Amino acid sequence: MATEERAINLSQGFPGFGADPVLLDLVAKYTREGFNQYAPMSGIPQLRERLAEKTRRTQGYLPNSETEVTIVSGATEAIFAAVTAILRAGEETIVLEPAYDSYEPAITLNGGIPVYVPLNAGNFSVDWEKVKDAITPKTRLILVNSPHNPSGFVWSQADVDQLAALIRHREIYVVSDEVYEHITFDGLKHISLGSHPELRQKTFVCGSFGKTFHVTGWKIGYCIAPTELTAEFRKVHQYITFSTVTPIQYALAEYLEVPERYLSILDFYQKKRDLFVKGLGETDLRFTPSTGSFFQLASYGHLSQIGDREIAEKMTRKLKIACIPISVFYSDKRDDKIIRFCFAKDDAELLEGLDRLKNLAEIL
Ligand SMILES: Cc1ncc(COP(=O)(O)O)c(C=O)c1O
Asked: Aminotransferase class I/classII large domain location, by residue (predicted)?
């Protein structure tokens, strides 16, 4: 609809700007130098090693790059393969809602049963009592996501500890979607579940180079999990894609040699978040500044009671600015009158979009 209407598109979660030319040149170099045949099933050793090193630097633990790190075709594949590796028909998976849309099909296609637990209204933090109440003898998996899409909520150490305590004596595993690991704001730090020695034994950490380096179309990501879990994970990965695009793996391995390249992402997005919330403050929408990811939620229930899908459509068609209604992230499509904006766009586009948002009253 955004394309049809030539609207400023702040809906889908992909960056509107290019990648670092250094990275693009590396891809060109490796394709020309003939790195164009199948990569090893688990990923090229150089990239697995660099990723393990990045994990040590940012999360304080060093995964075994041979047995605990697998390169896959995007976090979506990592999530699907991890769920498939663990879940058997009839077993339950706890999903915290609102949730990214690939979780439910990954569970149901494996014959599993999603059990939804709503995040707290307002700030989208986790209600650990509710999570505890949702656990049954059939619970085999919990699927979590921090920094969170769509809310931007970032887990604290207390959240991580709560999850560890909750599954301590249970045979429950965790799929941790950490694709926005390098995008947190206001001094907050992303805490990978892998950094918790106990949780690390039961967790598949799923990440995305596409999200980190503004190249979502490359569909390249990874999974870090303990040796036994990685062995099961690879059995699935082997028959989904077998291996992941070779020249890009070589390019990323070389690119990751300079830590500044992933550490600087944080400042880059902090500026975008600041610019976007400053402008949003001049509109009639209500919001709390996002603390992570490249999404900003805003509510309009104090202005109008029209449905969130309807307002998103009107904004796209009449104001020419596209956003996403939050009801689509809920299994029961509940409508809390909240919309999501993606601010991973050029500043000029963000400013133009914000300008159009000032006319919101016209469509309510
Ligand atoms: C929370 C979350 N997980 C996973 C993905 C997909 O990552 P990838 O493109 O690496 O498959 C997205 C993309 O929007 C996402 O928002």
From this structure: 8-357
